[in-house]
Write a structure and sequence with these properties.
The protein is α+β, with helices and mostly antiparallel strands. It has 8 helices and 16 strands. α1 packs across α4, α2 runs antiparallel to α4 and α5 packs across α7. Bound molecules: zinc ion (ZN). Zinc ion binds next to loops.
Length: about 350
């Protein structure tokens, strides 16, 4: 399954129509929520027969039980009937996933717009999407391959609308391009690319984090505030710079899903690093969408101790575990390749990305 995202040309009537549909979606969602709440208050558990025995289960409603209650509401609300069903399905799935009795209400003011649909609900023709009698134009940055399964209209925090389309396409036709890049996120260097390029010493983040914990210990709230602002600003600058450059110059950006917990000891350094890394990922993601660049996150497990030349896992010489964190350069005991630790990891990350897209 592959999901495409396109920016919708959402000026004027398009934004109005999407906004109205999003409010209807909220109404359906809140109806499901309220129905679930009432159901539990009237009957907390119900008996079902399982393998000849009567068992009691909590009175949670399934998507199929919502469907008859919602029948016909689509027409009144200006939503496709499949959209109404998709909302109920999403509600039931989320409730189960979060193990909640009911979920948060969707608010017209606070919730970001979201309108799910199924394949039969939309028609895509060139750079035009038809949904429920409305026509929306979008920037068709890359052709949609495969059959459309489902998707959604969604809004970002700046109020911009996107269309997300999931297809059953397996990306085999795409060729790996020399311009594809893998990225390893690290402590010494914030981001190291598979082509050898390095961005931003993460040192400054750690320096700030030390100052910050000192200021917090001394209870200097003004200094804490100004340090937090400084960290935020320099983090913003760096993330914008890196993500701009990478999405401008490459067609595919693959990044590791590293978390700081394995790498640093103090909680302060962890939170500072994590915020930096997750911001960089977020920026890469939304810039990639806007720039016809494909973005992908892969598991970075073992990427720093696998030789990117001969693909041997943990050969002699490879940095292993916490002890190996200090090793910056190493020689593969199997093929003799000399590796920069971070570049080697980035190369492995790119390879995992190519593998999972079925690219050679
Ligand atoms: Zn090797």
């Amino acid at each position: 399954m592959l999901t495409y995202s396109y920016r919708i040309k959402d000026s004027g009537p398009s934004a109005v129509a999407l906004g109205a549909a999003a409010r209807s979606v909220n109404m359906v969602w809140n109806f499901c929520n309220e129905t679930q709440k009432i159901a539990l208050s009237r009957l907390s558990a119900r008996a079902i027969e399982r393998q000849g025995k009567v068992v009691w289960i909590p009175n949670f409603l399934s998507a199929y039980e919502f469907h008859p209650l919602l029948k016909g509401s689509g027409k009144e609300l200006g939503l496709h009937s499949q959209t109404v069903q998709a909302i109920a399905e999403e509600f039931a799935t989320r409730r189960k996933q979060f193990k909640k009795r009911w979920l948060r209400w969707r608010s017209n003011r606070k919730s970001l717009g979201w309108i799910p649909f199924k394949a039969s609900g939309i028609k895509v023709l060139g750079d035009v999407i038809q949904y429920c009698g409305h026509t929306f134009r979008f920037w068709n940055s890359r052709p949609i391959e495969g059959a459309i399964r489902s998707g959604s209209f969604s809004q970002d925090s700046r109020g911009r609308w996107y269309i997300n389309i999931t297809t059953d396409h397996v990306a085999t036709a795409v060729k790996a391009e020399p311009g594809d890049v893998g990225i390893d996120l690290g402590l010494k260097t914030l981001a190291t690319c598979s082509n050898g390029k390095k961005f931003g010493a993460a040192r400054y983040l750690r320096k700030f984090s030390r100052k910050l914990s000192l200021a917090q210990k001394d209870g200097k709230s003004k200094r804490v505030k100004s340090l937090n602002a400084k960290i935020k600003n320099s983090r913003n600058d760096l993330s914008h710079k890196i993500s701009n450059e990478l999405t401008r110059d490459h067609q595919l950006v693959v990044i590791g899903n590293v978390s700081s917990s394995k790498l640093v000891k103090t909680r302060m350094a962890k939170s500072v690093l994590d915020a930096g890394w997750s911001q960089l990922r977020t920026f890469l993601k939304y810039k990639a969408i806007a720039r016809e660049c494909m973005y992908m996150e892969v598991s970075e497990h073992l990427t720093s101790q696998t030789c990117s030349c001969c693909k041997t896992r943990s050969p002699a010489g490879a940095p292993k575990g916490v002890k190996g964190l200090g090793i910056r350069e190493w020689v593969c005991g199997v093929c003799g390749a000399v590796h920069d630790r971070d570049v080697n990891a980035a190369l492995n990350i790119l390879r995992i990305g190519h593998d999972s897209l079925g690219l050679k």
